[in-house]
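hey team, just a heads up i'm posting the complex here instead of the shared drive bc the drive is being weird again. everything in one block, sequence lines first with there labels, then the predicted structure for the whole assembly after. its two chains so it's a bit long, scroll down
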Amino acid sequence: MTQLPKQTAKKLGLVIDLDTCVGCHACVISCKGWNTENYGAPLSDQNAYGADPSGTFLNRVHSYEVQPEQGTAQLIHFPKSCLHCEDAPCVTVCPTGASYKRVEDGIVLVNENDCIGCSLCAWACPYGARELDAKEGVMKKCTLCVDRIYNENLPEEDREPACVRTCPAGARHFGDLGDPDSDVSLLVAARGGFDLMPEQGTKPVNKYLPPRPKDVMPEFDVLAPFLEPVATTGTGFAHWLDKTLSALPGGSK
Amino acid sequence: MSLDQPALDTSPHVSDEVRKTTCYMCACRCGINVHMKDGKVAYIEGNRDHPVNKGVLCAKGSAGIMQHNAPSRLRAPLRRVGERGSGEFEEISWEEALQTATDWLAPIREKHPEKLAFFTGRDQSQSFTSFWAQGFGTPNYAAHGGFCSVNMAAAGIYTMGGAFWEFGQPDWDHTKLFMLFGVAEDHDSNPIKMGIGKLKARGARMIGVNPIRTGYNAVADDWVGITPGTDGLFILALVHCLMQAGKVDLDYLARFTNASVLVNEDPKSDQFGLFLRDDQGQPQVIDRRTGTLAPWNGQGVEPDLAATHRAAGITHRPVFHLMADRYLDASYAPEAVADRCGIPASRIRAIAADLARVAFDEAISLDREWTDFRGKKHKEMIGRPVSFHAMRGISAHSNGFQTCRALHMLQIILGAVETPGGMRFKPPYPKPATAHPKPHGKVTPGAALDGPHLGYVQGPEDLLLHDDGTPKRIDKAFSWENPMSAHGLMHMVISNAHAGDPYKIDTLFMYMANMSWNSSMNVGGVHKMLTDKDENGDYVIPRIIYSDAYSSEMVAYADLILPDTTYLERHDCISLLDRPICEADGVADAIRWPVVEPDRDVRGFQSVLCDLGARLGLPGFVNDDGSAKYKDYADYITNHIRRPGIGPLAGFRDADGSSEGRGTANPDQLQNYIDNGGFWIAHVPENCAYYKPFSAEYQDWAVKMGFYDVVQPYIFQLYVEPLRKFQAAAEGRGHRQPPDHLRGQIKATMDPLPIWYPPFEDGHIDPVEYPIHALTQRPMAMYHSWGSQNAWLRQIHGHNPLYVPTKIWEANGFKDGDWARVTSAHGSITVPVAHQAALNENTIWTWNAIGKRKGAWALDKDAPEATKGFLLNHLIHELLPPRGDGLRWANSDPITGQAAWFDLRVKIEKSGLPNEAQPMMPTIKSPVPKGPKDLAWKAGQ
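-- predicted structure starts here --
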C-alpha cells in the first residue's frame, strides 16, 4: 500500500464548464498528441486501421442525453480525465508505490519505472480515469501536463495543460483549487461548481460547472410591449410609417 | 512512500524547432505550430498569434500528425491497367504521367477546349486553378460550392455583399442574443466555438434552430427543433411579427438599404417591377429634404421610406411598401406557419419579441464618429446586439437560396448587419454582386477563355447560353435551369458528361473531390456512369485524370493519378483573391510551406499544374520564349501579378517587403511570411470597423489595400432586381426567353423579395408514403472522408448509427442493437439504429461521410467504417423522381443549382440483422499497402 501525503502545498486541477463544452473532442486529441510525444511511454493504438481500433487516452468526452420529466431532452457533453483526488484510492491501492500524489501540487502520477501493470489502481478508481497501455503494459493517466506547467522551455503563457490551451470554447480552466482566491476557485464559487460523485469520498480536486437552465425563454407578455401591432395590413403599415417618419428628426410632413 | 517521490524533470526538451504553417484538416484554415524533433513532426498545436484560431485548435487539427503519417497516402503517379473501378494500377514516373496528360490535353485545347471538364473539389487555391482553366480555354471549371453552400454565399452577395463564415461573423464581443440556424459544425470550426465561449463567459444568450440537438445546439439556451426545409417560413413569420409591431430599424432601412428605392408598379409597363432610374442609370429615391426624386447615392440625400412617386401615369412605390404588403399578410402569421415548421405559434412570437427587445431596448452605441458615402456625419455607431449565423443547414434545400435571403433580410430589418453587436463583414468583403465579375464562357480553340468562369449574373443577358439556347457549360451553370449558379454545379458534371447533355466531353480532370463516394448523390449510379462503355467498347467518359493525396474511393475510377502531397509538405497561399481567412477587424492571408519534405514520389498539385500549363503553352504559364514561367507553385505565389500591384499574397509586397495590399513582387515574400508565423494581417481603421459598405473611410482604405480599384459604396438589396429580371423574362418580357417548361418555376421561385416554398421533393413524392425527413451532420472531429484514415479520429467516429427520434423508435418497436431498412423514392439502405430524444419527431439523421468503401483509405476490409458505416447518398438522386410530365427535374435549388441534400424524405422499417450495412459495394483493390496493426508514434526518442 502506498501512502497519500497528509496535505499538499497546492491543489492543482481543472474546472470544466459543462454549460460551454460543445463536445468537440479537441481536448481529447490535444492530450493524446502531447502525451504520446512526452511524459513516459507513448499512448499506443491497437488495430489502428482495422476492426475495433482501440488506443490509450488520458481524457475522453462522453455525451449523455438527459430527458427531464417536463420539457425538452438535452445533450450534455462530459469530458472526463483523472480528477487528482485528495483521497485518491488509486494511490493507496498501488502495491509498488508507482502511483503517487505529489506533495507540492497534488498531481497524481504514475512512475512508469515502478509500474507492474497490475491494474489494481484502475479498478480502484471510481471514475474509470486510468487506462493500461496495451503495448507498454504500464498504467497511463492524466498528468495535468506536469511536463508543461513548469516547463521553462515553453513560453510562460503556454505553461498550462494541453487540453486547456487548445479548448476552442474556453470550457476548461486550470489553477490552484486549494487557494480560495484563485480564478478557478472564484469561478467554482460563482457558478456552483460541484464534485463528481462526492459519495465516493475521494474528494476530487477537479470541479465541474453545471449547465445553466435550458429552454426557458425570458418571461414577458408576447404581445406587449415588444410585439404590440402597429398595423395589420400593408396600407395600415404605410400610414403608420408616414406618421412615424414625420415624428423622426428631419421629418418634414 | 509518498514522501519518497521520484525525481521528475518538469522542464523536458519540447522540440528542436517550431514551424508555423496553416492547418488543412478542414476548411477553417487555422494557424498551427508544428513542433519538430529529429526532423520529424512531433506535436501540433494552435498558433496564438493567428487571426483565425488565436492559439486554440480542434481535434482534427491536433490529429494532423496522424493524417501526415497515414498509410493511405499515395506514393507515386499511377496509370490504370485494369478496368475502370478495379483499382488495378501501375506506378509510373512523373515524366510519363505529365507527358500522358499533355498528350491527352493538347489536342483538346487545339480543337475543342470545352471538352476538358476541370473541377477541383475542396480546393483552397481556386484563384489559381481557375486561372489555369481560363488559360486552357475551357468554360468547364468550378470547385465544390455547388454541392456545398452556394445558396448561402450567393444569397449573401446579392443581398448585402457577403454572407457568413469567410464573408462575415457575429460581433462576438458585443452581441447579446445569438441565433444559430442548422450549421455543419465546421463552418467554420474554431471561430464559432471561440465565439460561443465568449457569449457564455459574458452571459449572453444563444438560440439554436436545428432539427437535431447536438454540438452547438446542445449548449444553446433555447433549442428550436424545426422541421427540415421550413426555416424560411419560420424566418418570414419572425419578419411578420417584427413588421407588424413596427420593430424595425427605420433609419437604417432608409439610409443603408434599398427599402427606400422606388419600384415600377404598373403591370402593363415594360419596366414593371424594376427600379425607377435616372439618366445615369441610378435607382431613385424620394429625398425627404425636398420631396422630389434623387439618386440613392446623391450627396446629402435623405431617402424617404414612405413616399410614393407617380409620373407618366405610372405609380412607383418604395420597396418597403412592397415588403409591408407581403410580410404583413396573414399567411406569414405564426399561427399559419406553426404546424408546418413544427414550432408552436406562441414560441415564434416569443422569439420575435426577444429579438425586438434586445435589438431595440438593449441597443448599444460605440463612441466612434464616422461619415457615410452621402457625406453625412454620424456622431456614434449605433448597434443592435442580435446576431445570426447559418450555413449548409438552411442552404442545402431546393428553397435554400430564398431561405438564406430571408435570413439576411431579417438581420437587415433589425439594423443588425455591420453594426455593433450584429453581423460584421470580413475584408475584402463586403463586396456587392455588381463588384464581382460576370460569368464567362466564350470558347476559342487554342486560346484562353474570354474571362473568369464564375460570377454574378445581373439578368438574362448574362446567362451562358448558345444562340440556340443550349448551355455553354457541361454542368449547365448560368442556364435557365439555375441562372444564378455562382459556384457551378460539380455534382452534375459526371451525369451530364455521361448523358452527353448538353454535349460530350473528352477528359474529366478532378482534384480532391470524392465524387465516386460521399460527394455524389446516387453513388451506385455514378459508378455505372464512370465505367459505362459505348457501342465501340470505349468508355462513355473517355478519360479521367484525378489528383488526390490519399487512397480515396475516387482513385479507382481514374485513368491517371497525380498524387498530391500532405498539407505539411506543400506550398499554398490562403489568398484574398480566393477564400480569405480575414477577421472583421483585419484583413489577413496566410501560407503553407513544406515543414517536412515528402518521403514519397509525390508533388503538390498546384506545382504540377504549373508544369502542365507550361507544357501546354497556356497563357500566363509560359514566357515569351515559350519557356516555363513558374518553376513551381511557390514561384507562382511569389511572382504572379493578377492586376497591377496585386498578387496572390497581400502582405510583404515590394522588393523590400515593406508594402501591404498593393506592390510589386517580393522575392523574399514567402520567407517574410514564415518569419511572421505563416500569415499577414493588417487592421481595419477603428472608425470604419463597422458600417463598412457605407463608410467613406472604409471605402478609401479598401481601395488602398487593393480589394477593388475604385470607391464603390452600395446599399443592401432587400429587393434583388436581377431576380425580378429573370421573373419578368419568364412572364414573356424581353428578348431572351426561357424554355416554356421552366417559365412556371422561374416565375414562382425567382421572386425579388424573399419567399418560402415547400422543398421540391415534397411535390415529387408522396409525403404520406415517405413521412420522415433524413439528414446528415458533419461531426466536429471529422472532415468529409478524410477523418477515417486518421488513427486517432476514427476512434471517436468509427461508425455512424442512424439516430431515430422517440416517436419513430417506439412506433417501430426498435431496441438497442437493431437495424432498419430506410427507403426513399430512389433507393434503400439497411443500417444500425440508435435512439435520440433531442430530435425533431419526424427526422432521422446520421454523421456524414463516416461510411467507407472496402479497400479504400488503407483500412482493413472489416473496419467498422466499411461494415457498419453507411452513406445516405444512396437514397438521394441528382434528379427528382418522375412525376408524369415527361420531364426530369433537378434535385437542386432552381436559382443557384445547389444540391438539395436535405430535402430527402424516407420511410423506415425494422429489418433483420444483416452481417453488414447495405448496399455493400464490392471491395476495391488498394493502390497502397495496408497500415501497421499497432501504433506508438513518438518522434523524439
